[in-house]
């Protein structure tokens, strides 16, 4: 059985606050259907990156959102002009995540400021896990999440961007399917599935930025593990490193340049429109 709950009563998070200390009373007061309370070993505490960023002082001055996005961008994947708002930019950010606007958030922030993602979400998850374990008498896994769009799909969904004590990729290769044949390519993005489930009950902007998921103890580990950064598919494994228009323009330019060089060695050369 999978149980997911998002407690009310999380206090306002400000820069420098000890997030573990702040969340402990709220998590300890959770009441479960079986009559138990609090958080137990094997649970997963799912935390919106927004409050992690606030606690870590990631609210920065920005005269424009674009300025903040530029500061967090490592690589531009695609840019599209929009008539109904700011241009859309899909980029790889400093955390290695490909997402719109580099994850920069200007909702529910003071005018002239922007909220950046945690500098190292995995380190944030490990720190919060230590803080909770020291106070709760249990050692749950911690998952830091953020909302993002996905290729080929409309709408946004929460994904895991930082993790501690959680199997983020559930490798099922070699296990038998229902017909008894071994699975050959099935690796489940468990962290993203947990993030999405938790987002159904928590709300980063509505006073419930934290959820607890119970029933997945087989994915919770004693050690903190490698974290969630390995979920990012970049480099040679990224089959969509550029937007379609950008890839076409680059290929056209490369072909034009190659043909130009060839033309210099041929009588009469080439002509281009």
Which key terms come to mind for this protein?
60s Ribosomal Protein L30, Chain: A; globular; 5-stranded mixed sheet; 6 helices; alpha+beta; 3-stranded antiparallel sheet; 273 residues; single chain
Question: Can you put this structure into words, describing what you see?
Answer:
The protein has a domain at 1-50 and 121-232: CofE-like (60s Ribosomal Protein L30, Chain: A). A hairpin with a 2-residue loop joins strand 8 and strand 9 (153-164). The protein has six helices and twelve strands. It is globular and about 70 Å long. The protein is an alpha+beta fold and 273 residues long. The strands form four sheets. A five-stranded mixed β-sheet has the order 1-12-2-8-9. It has helices at 19-28, 49-55, 65-72, 121-136, 190-199, 244-264; strands at 3-5, 44-48, 59-61, 73-80, 88-93, 98-100, 113-115, 141-150, 153-164, 170-171, 187-188, 210-214.
């Amino acid at each position: 059985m999978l149980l997911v709950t998002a407690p009310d009563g999380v206090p306002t998070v400000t820069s420098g606050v000890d997030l573990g200390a702040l969340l402990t009373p709220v998590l300890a007061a959770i009441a479960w259907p079986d009559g138990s309370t609090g958080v137990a070993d094997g649970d997963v505490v799912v935390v919106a990156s927004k409050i992690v960023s606030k606690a870590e002082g990631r609210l920065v001055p920005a005269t424009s959102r674009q300025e903040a996005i530029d500061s967090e961008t490592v690589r531009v994947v695609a840019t599209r002009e929009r008539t109904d708002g700011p241009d859309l930019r899909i980029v790889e950010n400093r955390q290695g995540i490909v997402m719109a606007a580099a994850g920069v958030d200007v909702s529910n922030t003071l005018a002239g400021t922007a909220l950046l993602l945690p500098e190292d979400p995995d380190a944030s998850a490990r720190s919060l896990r230590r803080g909770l374990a020291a106070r709760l008498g249990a050692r749950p896994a911690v998952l830091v999440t953020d909302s993002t769009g996905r290729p080929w799909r409309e709408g946004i969904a929460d994904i895991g961007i930082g993790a501690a004590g959680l199997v983020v990729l559930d490798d099922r290769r070699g296990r038998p399917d229902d017909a008894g044949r071994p699975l050959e390519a099935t690796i489940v993005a468990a962290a993203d599935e947990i993030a999405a489930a938790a987002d159904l009950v928590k709300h980063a902007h509505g006073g419930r930025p934290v959820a607890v998921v119970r029933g997945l103890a087989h994915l919770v580990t004693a050690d903190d593990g490698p974290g969630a950064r390995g979920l990012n598919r970049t480099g040679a494994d990224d089959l969509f490193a550029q937007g379609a228009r950008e890839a076409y323009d680059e290929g056209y330019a490369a072909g034009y340049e190659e043909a130009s060089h060839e033309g210099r060695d041929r009588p009469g050369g080439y002509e281009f429109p």
